[in-house]
Design a protein that fits this description.
The complex is a heterodimer of chains A (351) and B (99). Chain A is mainly α and 351 residues long. Chain A is built from 12 helices and 4 strands. The chains are: A mainly alpha (351), B mainly alpha (99).
């Protein structure tokens, strides 16, 4: 079975290459569907396959850039990418990210910040999960109220409407974002992207997990446009990240290419699946992904208080993340297949 | 409500204004760089060339990497497009118009 293993030229470790393809497919589907890079899923996966942590992060970012580019191309054809919004937000994200990263270094000199940062991350994820499910329950309540009146809720109705309040702030220059279908002050996406970039820099993450809900709840993008626009940003920032990590010598391109084989197919499946699933369906699944991510971090955080269960908690966190990837990607894939079948059947009926 | 919103707005603006200066003033601590050298003894062909390139110049290695990744992405993306188009999936439009 030696042929199933490939020697990585830079890291010098032998890796089970079918594992890389499977991991690539899984995160490709989830990334293309939710509009995020998915570093929180890939890094532990690569680590399990035998990559040293430094190479796991660099390789993940390198494959993420390619994968997000594929998804952006697909979402772009569906009209899900607001390039103008993406470019405006990119400025805020880059400046915010650098400020966040510098701030972490400053805090590190004051003392150990790693645990504090992880707890902030958990708090933030809890807030995002609460927002998503609060929004869903509010929309359902509106649906019930409309049904009681014998009416049907309009397609664009949302539960949480914070963006409407923020759109009332009309500080010039005002911008019209065509694909997102909104007109707002240019400062809104700049400030939102600065804050999400700043948080991403402090937390040491790509930021898709924060930016996607911020685009929906603060900027007011429809879910599909939030997914596509976020992927556009992930593709560009991923390429920048890949360049810096590679320059530091921490990228294993061979592994990234193998992963990209799987991720390319997965990203297409994930992006096409958004065509068949309604915006609120995506939001519900995103909420569960956030909860899964939060629980896996919590399992690592509580280890100092439960030293006897350290191994169990570590294994549990890994199983949870990999299980979540498997279940979610399988669900998205099934939904896509069902949607394609329906579409093909309708086409045949029309003929 | 309007007053409260104004207060939040000013708090947000001051955060945005002060955060970068705070962060930039802090600067960054310098850590000793760890140099990793690829072991080329067990490699041959293109793998050996790639590992040698890594050892000789990280800059060239980086430039090639950031060219190869998007190009590969686009190639695989186009291939997947062809396959999906061949299956009969409409890859150009999405009917949904809701949040």
């Amino acid at each position: 079975m030696d042929w199933l293993y490939i020697l990585m030229p830079i890291a010098g470790v032998k890796i089970f290459w079918p594992g890389l393809i499977i991991l690539g497919i899984g995160v490709g589907i989830i990334g293309g569907f939710f509009g995020m890079g998915g570093a929180w899923m890939v890094t532990p996966g690569l680590n399990i396959l035998g990559f040293p942590m430094a190479f796991a992060i660099g390789t993940d970012i390198a494959h993420m850039a390619g994968k997000s580019l594929i998804s952006t191309m697909r979402h772009g054809k569906f009209g899900n990418v607001d390039y103008k919004l993406g470019m405006i937000m990119l400025v805020g994200t880059v400046v915010g990210f650098e400020c966040g990263a510098q701030m972490v270094m400053w805090l590190e000199r004051l003392g150990s910040v790693e645990k504090v940062v992880r707890w902030i991350y958990v708090g933030l994820l809890l807030f995002i999960a609460w927002t998503v499910f609060h929004d869903i329950s509010k929309r359902r309540a509106k649906e019930r109220a409309a049904a009681a009146k014998g009416e049907q809720l309009e397609a664009g109705a949302t539960g949480v409407e914070w963006h409407k309040t923020l759109h009332k702030i009309k500080i010039p220059p005002m911008v019209h974002l065509k694909a997102a279908g909104i007109t707002c002050s240019a400062w809104l996406p700049i400030i939102v992207s600065f804050l999400t970039g700043w948080l991403a820099g402090i937390l040491g993450i790509g930021g898709g997990l924060i930016r996607m809900p911020a685009l929906i709840y603060l900027v007011g993008c429809p879910t599909h446009v939030a997914v596509g626009t976020d992927l556009f940003e992930v593709a560009i920032s991923g390429l920048y990240g890949a360049a810096t990590y590679t320059f530091k010598g921490r990228t294993e391109l061979v592994a990234a290419m193998i992963m990209l084989v799987g991720a390319a197919c997965g990203a297409q499946v994930g992006a096409v699946a958004t065509k068949y699933i309604k915006g609120y369906g995506i939001r519900i699944m995103f909420g569960w992904a956030v909860i899964g991510c939060m629980v896996s971090i919590l399992m690592k955080l509580v280890q100092p208080w439960l030293p006897a269960y350290k191994n169990l908690l570590n294994t549990g966190a890994t199983v949870l993340v990999l299980g979540l990837i498997s279940v979610m990607s399988a669900y998205i894939f099934i939904k896509m297949v069902q949607g394609v079948k329906r579409e093909l059947a309708m086409k045949q009926q029309n003929i | 409500m309007k007053k409260r919103m104004q207060r939040y707005w000013w708090a947000l603006i001051s955060l945005v204004l002060f955060a970068p200066s705070l962060a930039l003033a802090a600067g960054g601590g310098k850590s000793a760089p760890v140099v990793i050298v690829a072991d080329t003894r067990k490699l041959d062909g293109i793998m050996a060339w790639w590992a040698n390139l890594y050892n000789e110049s990280h800059l060239q290695f980086m430039i090639l990497t950031i060219i190869i990744i998007p190009v590969t992405g686009v190639i695989f993306g186009v291939l997947a497009d062809i396959v999906m188009g061949w299956i009969g999936i409409d890859l150009k439009s999405r009917e949904l118009a809701e949040h």
